[in-house]
Amino acid sequence: MQELTGVTKSLIAWDVSDQETSLYLYASRSATMCMSNGVVEGYDSKVQLQLEHGGLQPVYEYY
Questions:
Q1: Whole-angstrom distance, CA of residue 38 vs CA of residue 50
Q2: C-alpha pair distances (Å), 23 with each of 42, 63
Q3: More confident residue, 60 or 34
Q4: In whole angstroms, how large is the CA radius of gyration of the chain?
Q5: CB 16 within 8 A of CB 29
Q6: Which of 3, 25, 28, 38 is the most exposed place for a label (fewest CB within 10 A)?
Q7: What Å distances lie between residue 10 and 33, 39, 44, CA to CA?
Q8: How far is CA 49 from its chain centroid?
Q9: What pTM does this model have?
Q10: Confidence (pLDDT) at 3
Q11: Can you spell out the DSSP letters for the chain?
């Protein structure tokens, strides 16, 4: 389970304890994101993050 622990314009940090967890960073230009039946809706882009030595690394896949 990921718990959002800090957000700024240039920094987002998670407490990641499960090595098998999939992490995604979602962005919305119009701030219309919401959860519906456990699914994130209303985003403009989605980037998968992978846990690497020293932190989270982006896997650039835009949707």
A1: 21
A2: 18, 15
A3: 34
A4: 12
A5: no
A6: 38
A7: 19, 25, 18
A8: 7
A9: 0.52
A10: 45
A11: -EEEEEE-SS-EEEEE--TT--EEEEE-SS---EEETTEEES-SEEEEEEEETTEEEEE----
Residue type for position 23: L
Tell me how far the alpha carbon of residue 6 is from its chain's centroid: 12
Tokens 């979602």 belong to residue: 26
Q: What is the pLDDT of residues 18-56, one digit of tens each?
A: 666 777 888 888 878 888 888 888 888 888 877 676 666
CB neighbours of 3 closer than 8 A, spacing ≥ 6? 14, 15
Q: Which two tokens stand for residue 27?
A: 């962005």
